[in-house]
Design brief:
It is a single chain. The protein has no helices and six strands. It has about 80 residues and is mostly beta strands. It has a three-stranded antiparallel sheet with strand order 4-1-6, with no helix packed on it. It has a three-stranded antiparallel sheet with strand order 3-2-5, with no helix packed on it.
Length: about 80
């Protein structure tokens, strides 16, 4: 599971935090703000992707009113070999 706090503008195409599979660039999960500055905890269940290399990407391609995204407290479990 990956979890993070998200707030800001509601625009899933231009404002989002996403989990990306490193091997092929696919996006198994993403979240955007809800037009609100109050953070909400988002939990991505990635149990189907255990063992795959992933990374978290934050995208902000919007302008104008609510043209921003806030992300905080990102938690990504890792396995140390």
């Amino acid at each position: 599971m990956v979890d993070l706090l998200v707030s800001g503008g509601n625009d899933p195409d231009r404002l989002y935090a996403a989990v990306i599979r490193a091997g092929d660039g696919k996006v198994p999960a993403k979240a955007t703000g809800r037009g609100n500055e109050q953070y909400r905890r988002v939990v991505f269940d990635l149990s189907a992707h255990i063992g795959e290399r992933i990374y978290v990407e934050v995208v902000d391609r919007a302008t104008g009113g609510w043209g921003h995204i806030n992300v905080d407290d990102v938690n990504v479990p890792v396995c140390r070999e």
